[in-house]
Write a structure and sequence with these properties.
Helix content is about 35%, strand content about 15%. By secondary structure, the protein is of the alpha+beta class.
């Protein structure tokens, strides 16, 4: 613990360093030179991405070296599941639960002394700056997921067929394939083909595969047409038609030096995607306007063709539902660019200029084939053989901030899209305009006339002196407009990263970690049982996981100087609202108002970080970029159309995996050949499936799936076949199980009884059994907009499992999750008609017991029942953080409990304990639901919770 001599506040070591770096207090600033924490920075070593007051002209432009998106491993970038469901964040394995149980009781830092609370911001408690009313949000979001009113483009020739070639892509492929009368050709049999496919798409290295086939008798037993990897490669190279363009090796000359570039013909790549028969029925050939109302006053935005840019440009594209699925292969690797660090250039400024010009020279050469067809058009056949005239142009440019600067030539610390001064980046109201493309193009054209004039003109225009940027002559391209929002780097790895650091500095790190350790478990919540203050090199996935509980750990937390907590809570809530709303797969004009409102609420409350001495300004390019989100969604559709997470994942698949397949000598030629063979096998696999199944039926286009519906999945057999009733009450904590079941039986058989009558009748019920079968987990599967249920992925689950020991004899704590229960009139969204309950037992009765208890009921009772303990009904959400506060429903000092149908459970619910100023250290993650008296319902545990718990 460090005490600042300037202000007498206490800080952790890292917090003290941040405090001195950001403080505006002169007394604290004087300690900076004495602290030794910040040695003098050399030129170019400052962090220009966060703004500050530096001279940005002298900052270096990021060189094209290494990974533009950062350095990461596969586990840092999980590709979203094909069904758009969020993967479970914790394992069901005993090993992990045992590990967590050990961490739960491990050492932790003691709590800081509690300061006497002084309500220095009491005026804020009664301020009018509260959350939007739930009814307003429900009304705005009501049209989402419903069929829109569609207005077609008025010009009938837009996207119209020119003629039909009468030969589909699969048929033309079959015509050039040798021995096509054999379904498995050029392979001898199904096994021959399946082994080859496994070797190229799933198998180990080439040497290991050759050694496998060398096992005596294996080749003959399987009837393979190849004996080693070399012979298999010969078949693929010589007999499989090539449907995607080959890579070519060329040299780019920059500054009298040659650089190797491995690239494909960009037009052939466009044609390969356009002609892929898997996409033919999904392609959008003309823009459309989608409306949420019959009067056509409320626009709806989702895919790019519903945005305003398409209406004016008349483009076509592969839908985002296909582009986001790696298995659909809707992306083609265009080139491997040189990654030279240019160490032979000793002058730093010259090195940076050369690296920038090299990047643009490579892309200028690669994109050159787009110019003529982009302007004049070109006839292209889709996979179904229909020929249309297309104009391939650059629409969106998805990149992180360093690459945005590299691409546009804008100086570091400034916005790559608009003309706002750096000193106004933190302003929510400063007027901005898109950068003047015509003026910039005129400036850049001076390079061939007068070099000195060109450099001065570039400086006056606010751009770097780049020699002929690649976008200079591309038709119908405005690079400053094309720069799209970047949820991964601007939000998760940008402002969310900053926000977590600000919270760690504002609050006691020991207290933050203590709260993280005491969150109850949930399917969608990762428990950081060591806390979050020690984390380093945090990935976007981890920031996503922290966001799910970030609001809950700051509610009520004590701030330095006893500053009021309300503004901090409102600021965090606003950023989280912006984060979740920005990722909606569908928006309307009304929901975009909600997005704007969330940003406004953050700006209204952000001064809390100034008052805490954490920030001196908010001139952050990533924060300013939020002002462009609404406009860009209206132009190009929702943010999942241009998510850099997809390309980062592909960087692993197409670059890192490809590199691992080489011998690390002359790697690029091997990488390109590895990728070409892999693509051939993938295309051929689609062809084989077509030969076996035929053309797929046309699917009706549905609105974007807003992920509302869930389907319950129970295992075929119970977890425990027979649990005596006394153990149900003792081990599961179902204290009033028999009485609750008796009331359920009477209520089911005689639904019209009053409460008093039901109690009297229940007293006469005798249960004809002394044990029940129990289930320890309820699973939920997603149902998409077409009603398709995906059973391959569990999107939510509920645990109801008593204390037990694993195979090593270690004790695993009991876990009884909380759920959202439909009391009969619950809707798709909102909490009306719902109540929170804790599931103690999920059980089923034997058919014999069912017949005895429900002899002649009007409706047969369900197979699965649950004993639950109730929480209080939902009231109005709290004004500062917008969460619903609930507590245990008690009667005569006991939990009020009931038996319910499992089908009435809508989803799991995560609860934030009401920690107060300092969390009681006797609480643990496994006991907090029993020891805490009140809770807040977490609506940020996943996107489904945010959409439904309104």
């Amino acid at each position: 613990m460090n005490t600042c001599p300037g202000c007498a506040k206490n800080f952790e070591h890292t917090g003290y360093a941040h405090h001195l770096a950001q403080t505006i207090n002169p007394s604290c600033a004087a300690q900076l030179q004495l602290s030794g924490l910040f040695p003098e920075l050399e030129d170019g070593d400052s962090d220009s991405l966060d703004g500050g007051d530096d001279d940005f002209d002298s900052h270096r432009l990021t060189e094209f070296t290494g990974d533009y998106f950062g350095y990461y491993d596969e586990q840092d970038l999980e590709w979203p599941d094909d069904n758009h469901d969020e993967p479970p964040l914790e394992s069901d394995g005993e090993e992990e639960e045992d590990h967590d149980a050990a961490l739960e009781h491990g050492w932790e830092r003691p709590a800081d002394p509690v300061q006497q609370y002084i309500d220095s911001g009491g005026d804020l408690e009664n301020s009018d700056d509260s959350q939007p009313h739930p009814a307003e949000r429900q009304e705005a979001e009501a049209p989402l997921g419903h069929q829109p009113i569609i207005e077609k483009f008025p010009w009938r020739h837009a996207g119209a067929p020119v003629h039909h070639s009468r030969t589909t892509a699969f048929e033309s492929y079959k015509n050039v394939l040798q021995g096509a009368e054999n379904v498995w050709a050029p392979f001898a049999s199904r096994i021959d083909y399946e082994v080859a496919k496994w070797a190229k798409l799933r198998g180990s290295g080439s040497t290991a595969f050759s050694e496998l086939l060398a096992i005596d008798g294996l080749h003959d037993a399987l009837g393979l047409s190849y004996q080693n990897t070399h012979e298999l490669n010969q078949i693929i190279d010589r007999q499989l038609p090539c449907r995607r363009p080959r890579f070519k090796h060329e040299e780019i000359i920059v500054a009298d030096e040659a650089f190797d570039v491995y690239s494909r013909d960009v037009m052939e790549c466009v044609k390969a995607l356009y002609s892929d028969p898997k996409f033919s029925q999904h392609l959008n050939y003309a823009p459309k306007r989608h409306y949420a109302d019959a009067d056509k006053t409320i626009r709806m935005y989702h895919d790019i063709h519903t945005g305003k840019w398409w209406w004016s440009t008349q483009a076509s594209n592969i839908p985002k539902e296909i582009r986001r699925k790696p298995s659909q292969r809707a992306w083609i690797l265009l080139a491997y660019l040189p990654t030279s660090k240019l160490d032979h250039i000793t002058n730093k400024a010259a090195r940076r200029r050369t690296a920038t010009n090299l990047f643009h020279a490579c892309l200028r050469h690669i994109l050159e084939p787009l110019k003529v067809p982009g302007e004049d058009g070109v006839a292209m056949a889709s996979g179904d053989g229909v020929v249309r005239r297309g104009h391939p142009i650059v629409g969106c440019y998805a990149a992180d901030y360093p690459e945005q600067l590299l691409t546009t030539g804008i100086k570091s610390g400034e916005c790559p899209k608009c003309d706002i001064p750096h000193t106004e980046l933190g302003s929510p109201h400063f007027p901005v305009n898109l950068r003047d493309l015509d003026a910039i193009l005129a400036t850049l054209s001076l390079v061939d006339e007068d070099y000195d004039l060109w450099r001065r003109a570039c400086q006056e225009c606010g751009i770097k002196p780049i020699f002929k940027p690649f976008w200079l002559d591309l038709p119908h391209t405005n690079i400053f407009q094309s720069i799209t929002p970047d949820v991964l780097h601007q939000l998760y790895q940008g402002i969310i990263k900053h926000l977590i650091e600000w919270i760690k500095e504002a609050c006691s790190e020991a207290e933050i970690d203590a709260r993280c350790r005491r969150l109850p478990p949930n399917h969608n919540i990762r428990l950081f049982l060591k806390g979050i203050s020690h984390l380093s090199r945090v990935s976007g996935t981890e920031h996503n996981q922290i966001c799910r509980f970030l609001l809950g750990i700051v509610i009520g937390i004590q701030l330095p100087g006893n500053l009021n907590n309300a503004r901090l809570t409102r600021a965090i809530r606003a950023i989280l609202d912006f984060l979740y709303l920005a990722q909606y797969p569908c928006h309307t004009d009304q929901t975009l108002v909600l997005l704007d409102d969330a940003l406004t609420r953050f700006h209204d409350n952000k001064d809390i970080f100034l008052d805490l001495g954490i920030r001196s300004n908010f001139n952050l390019p990533k924060l300013h970029s939020f002002r462009h989100y609404v406009h860009m969604i209206k132009m190009y559709g929702t943010t999942d159309n241009y998510n850099t997470e997809y390309t980062e994942r592909l960087h692993i698949d197409l670059t890192k995996d490809a590199y691992r397949a080489t011998n690390h000598k002359d790697e690029y030629s091997q990488m390109t050949l590895w990728l070409e063979r892999r693509e051939k096998m993938l295309w051929h696999d689609n062809f084989v499936q077509w030969r076996l199944v035929g053309d797929l039926a046309l699917q009706e286009r549905s609105p974007p799936d807003m992920d509302y519906r869930r389907a319950i999945k129970m295992t075929k057999h119970p977890t425990v076949k027979r649990v005596p009733l006394d153990l149900i009450m003792q081990d599961y904590g179902a204290t009033f199980f028999t009485a609750a079941l008796a009331r359920y039986v009477v209520g089911r058989n005689q639904p019209g009884l009053s409460a008093a009558q039901l109690e009297r009748e229940a007293a006469h019920i005798i249960l004809p059994f002394d044990a029940v079968a129990t289930f320890h987990r309820i699973k939920f599967h997603a149902i998409d907009a077409r009603g398709f249920r995906d059973s391959s992925s569990t999107v939510d689950s509920v645990h109801s499992q008593p204390l037990r020991k694993d195979k090593r004899g270690h004790t695993i704590p009991a876990r009884f999750d909380t759920v959202l229960v439909n009391e009969g009139d619950g809707g798709i969204t909102g909490v009306n008609g719902y109540r929170v309950a804790q599931v103690r037992v999920v059980f089923t009765l034997t058919s014999k017991a069912m017949d005895l208890l429900f002899p002649a009921g009007p409706v047969k009772p369900p197979a699965h029942l649950a004993y639950v303990e109730w929480f209080t009904p939902f009231q109005q959400p709290e004004s500062h953080h917008g969460l619903y506060k609930i507590s245990r429903l008690m009667r005569h000092g006991e939990h009020l409990a009931s038996i319910i149908d499992v089908s009435d459970i809508r989803r799991s619910v995560h609860l934030f304990p009401n920690f107060g100023a300092v969390v009681p250290r006797e609480w643990t993650s496994s006991t907090v639901l029993e020891l805490c008296s009140s809770f807040f319902v977490n609506s940020f545990s996943d996107q489904h919770a945010y959409l439904t718990i309104v």
